[in-house]
Predict the structure.
Amino acid sequence: MSERKLVSLDWAMKRLLRSKANFDILEGFLSELLFRDIKIQSIGESETNQDDAMDKYNRVDIRVKDHLGEDIIIEIQFQSEYDYFHRTLYNISKAVCEQLDIGMDYGDIKKVIHINIVYFDLGRGDDYIYKQNNQFKGLHNSDILELSAQQKKCFNKQYPHELHPENYIIKVNKFNNVAKDSLDEWVYFLKNEEIKGSFKAKGIQKAKKKLNTMKLSKEARKEYERFVANKTYERGVTKSKELDLKYAKEEGIEQGIKASEQKIKKAEIKAEKEKIKAKKEKIKAEKEKEKMITTAKKLLVAGLDINFIAETTGFSLSELKKFKK
């Protein structure tokens, strides 16, 4: 028996999960992904969204504390774009910069974690979850750079990259629907909008109860249906772009092969022509030489001076002596 359909996480984050009563759902997802207990302090639109109307519907800004009490800014992005990696870099940079007030100490900048939930083929790779952190690695002995003793004490961290932004990519469509651990259970939900009764990940059973489409009001259900239709259209456009890019690439390869074949064919024809030309020139030179040898022999028979004959025909004296014999 199939599980009851649930609303997607991106729509829920914009409509249902901003309520403090529902924070435990997102806290569960984030705790499983980051491997630490997360407590949400607030959910809102990032100030960055003010610069881009598209972001307003695809990015959510979450202020959290982890189990050590560290303040963290988490941004979750769903937007499907071909310049995704550049867009992510821009969003992370803005999330860092918009924290800075005049006179603020750089050491007060909160850690930024950027989570990308994508439903299209982003990059090439066999995994479905990727994490990026900016380690400083020695070029010669491959050691990882550590903070100084004073910095460790001040920031309660061991390495510089622990202070820098982290970037996660969850490639939902790459997931094979086999939930091997609690994080996979959340990815299963992201892909299928279903939660099995056997799932035990943090917050996931609460999500099953609270994100049930049947519990939405009539108005909210219509709004969600419009959202799903728009998302389906958006994914269709993205898929179409992917296919266009694929076909363009294949066509380019095919054209490249044809151009190469034509180039090789032209080179082969040119080489054959040069070979024939060289052969003709060789035959011509041999005939000319035979004629000159005949002329030299006739002059020798006529009794002309051998030095005169050598000067006239170009043959050496030794060659003319051989002809005379």
User: Anything to note?
Assistant: The longest strand covers residues 59-66. Residues 218-301 form the longest helix (84 residues).
